Amino acid sequence: MYSQGLIGADGATHEDAAFLEAFQARIDAELKIEPNDPMPAGYRKTLVRQIAQHAHSEIVGMLPEGNWITRAPTLRRKAALLAKVQDEGGHGLYLYSAAETLGVSREELVDQLLSGKAKYSSIFNYPAITWADIGTIGWLVDGAAIMNQIPLCRCSFGPYARAMIRVCKEESFHQRQGYEIMLTLSRGSEEQKAMAQDALNRWWWPSLMMFGPHDADSTHSDQSMAWKIKRFTNDELRQKFIDATVPQAEFLGLTMPDPDMKWNEEKGGYDHGEIDWDEFWRVVKGDGICNRDRMKARRKAHDDNAWVREAALAYADKAAARETAVAAE
Amino acid sequence: MTEKNTPLWEVFIRARNGLSHKHVGSLHAVDSEMALQAARDVYTRRGEGQSVWVVRSSDIVASDPSEKEVMFEPTGSKIYRHPTFYDIPEDVGHM
To answer: Rounded to an integer, what is the distance from CA A291 to the centroid of its chain?
Structure first.
């Protein structure tokens, strides 16, 4: 499960001061906002955008892992991966439902993804080349997602918070199955250990980018924090993730691909090297290794399955017509 | 695309006997049979339920949030509906 620091949100809103103040007072009192409650247009817009990006990330996130289901090394690994990918699909569906409570239809949301108008997490534009990548995705990518999502369980918008609670409950299996794969590889042959290290080398930096730009460059963070959509800043969450992950890598006997990574006694956390933000923006803007492939695969799935949707609807219409006819007799 | 939108359904699950069905979320399906199957797949992947209800969202009649005060305020002022409203001497014991 995979959320990312919100990309390109604009929380601008134009209601009068009294309305905004009353709304902020509700937020400050930790009262949840439910779909039919009055809310500023900017709050609604930010949430639709964030929840939709989150849902799209779940759905696109099924692709790099789904690619490995038929090639999993054992039946145990295959069953676990299949269940994990199915969970990601489920998470996407919870999230689409939460977004729809804000007045946007499923069809519009899917259309925004397929037309390229909506974003999804940049991490899924990297390829899963070896089996160790599947371990690393579970360990790091799901690990980073959990860091992002636990505070979202307390998000001020009720349906989003409730969806996140369900998601977080299911998520810890994902991270554990990934770490277990890494553990097996890192305790295996030299080749397997090298494969694990190589996967860590490739996924570490993109995982750090999942938390979004530095706080100083994250223009719309303040409003999201004030509205309690976000509870921690991008940099705070990134730091938590690094501090939790470095000892896990040590346990595996793997080396973090960052020569500047070192413990900072004073802050009680690890310092890290500079993140390549040019790469981040390149991938967000569509020029990652897999952006085109991912969108092509989603569009193909949508088009190839059009006949199923049409047939199901036609069948339902026919059955309903038959029932009406019988009732009229 | 001129596709018709797929109807929305609300899903209610009874976690185990002795508990009531509780709203867990929603989903899209063309008919009740597919809604039930989808509800099972989306909302009960880890033994969350013993029984599932699906209801077309358009069939739910809801109170108007803008009339919340008219609707619910009267019960707020009727404090005599609560046991603490009545003075009973302590000597009587627990009642």
So the answer is: 16
Whether the CB-CB separation of A134 and A181 falls below 8 Å is answered with yes
For A191-202, what is each residue's pLDDT tens digit? 999 999 999 999
What DSSP character marks residue A36? T
CA distance A71 to A256: 27
Residue A312 belongs to what H/E stretch? helix A306-328
Structure tokens at A276: 């390549």
Question: A143-182, pLDDT tens digit by residue?
Answer: 999 999 999 999 999 999 999 999 998 888 999 999 999 9
Cα Rg of chain B (Å, integer): 21
Q: Does B4 touch chain A (CB under 8 A)?
A: yes
Chain A interface includes B6 (CB < 8 A):
yes
* Euclidean distance between CA atoms A251 and B53, whole angstroms: 47
The predicted model gives A307-311 an average pLDDT of 94
Structure ipTM: 0.84
- The nearest CA of chain B is from the CA of A227 a distance in Å of 21
Structure tokens at B2: 């001129």
The structure's pTM equals 0.91
- Would you state the structure tokens that stand for residue B67, as one six-digit string? 């009339």
Alpha-carbon span A281 to A288, nearest angstrom:
9
Coil, strand or helix: which one is B21? coil
B25 neighbourhood in chain A, CB within 8 Å: 94, 97, 162-163, 166
The chain-wide mean pLDDT, for chain A, equals 93
Rounded distance between C-alpha atoms, residue A230 and residue A221, angstroms: 8
Written as six digits, the tokens of A156 are 């001020």
